[in-house]
Amino acid sequence: MNYCFIGAFGYLLFLIYDVNEIKQFNKALKITFLLGLLLQIGATIGIFYDNLTYLRISGLGIVISLFGFVFLIYSLFFALPFEATYVKVGEKRKVYNRGVYAMSRHPGVLFYIIFYIGLALLEPTKIIISTYLIWCILNIAYIMFQELWTFPRSFYDYEVYRKSTPFLIPTFKSIRTCINTI
Questions:
Q1: Would you say 68 and 36 are in contact if contact means Cβ atoms under 8 Å apart?
Q2: Backbone angle region of 69, left / alpha / beta, with phi > 0 → left and psi within -120 to 50 → alpha
């Protein structure tokens, strides 16, 4: 099975979701984000399971992947105020710039990359590494789309947020702000 394609298709669904949320075309398309997420999760589990014969128990790989996974889930689903983020869509709202979102405008991407680096250390095959690399590149392309198109239309104060918070790579100042606002 081509897990790389399945996971990549999830990003197309994420794009459809974003465009639909801004343009408000179809309420039925609201499910595309969840479907994209399920494709990513399913493809990750599938490719990892299919390559178990190459599994190398690595303390470093386990620690890195767990760290990335825990903070990925935290930054996407717990660090943000749930209602303002996932319920009040379709209207311009205020940026959330506290905690990990003071560290970087896209902390989920950092933790996503860390998670897949950890998994690649556990199963270091060409197919695993190339698949995870493609997904990470697609994730960065997706946040570039959000940065240039989705978020300026979603948040009335996004330009101010851009000026105060690094795009992806945290700085010492942004890490300090993150810690002070948790």
A1: no
A2: alpha
CA distances from 182 to 56, 60, 81, 116, 176 (A): 36, 27, 13, 26, 10
Contact 34, 118 (CB under 8 A): no
**Are the beta carbons of 134 and 6 closer than 8 angstroms?**
no
Distance in angstroms (rounded) separating the CA atoms of residues 15 and 5: 16
Going from the C-alpha of 166 to that of each of 79, 101, 102, 157, the distances in angstroms are 17, 10, 8, 15
According to the model, what pLDDT value does residue 83 have? 64
To the nearest 10°, report the CA torsion of 100, 106, 111, 112.
150
User: Which pLDDT does position 89 carry in this prediction?
Assistant: 58
pTM for the full predicted model: 0.90
Flag whether pLDDT at 145 surpasses 80.
yes
Structure token digits, residue 117: 């680096």
Q: Both tokens of residue 91?
A: 């209207």
User: C-alpha dihedral over 176, 157, 136, 78, to 10 degrees?
Assistant: 60
**Is residue 99 within 8 Å of 79, Cβ to Cβ?**
yes
Q: How many domains does the chain have?
A: 1
Cβ density class 14-28: b for 16+ within 10 Å, e for less: bbbbbebbbeeeeee
Joined together, the tokens standing for residue 119 give 């998994």
The Cα–Cα gap between 115 and 113 comes to 5
Q: Could you list the residue range(s) of the whole structural domain that residue 146 is in?
A: 3-181
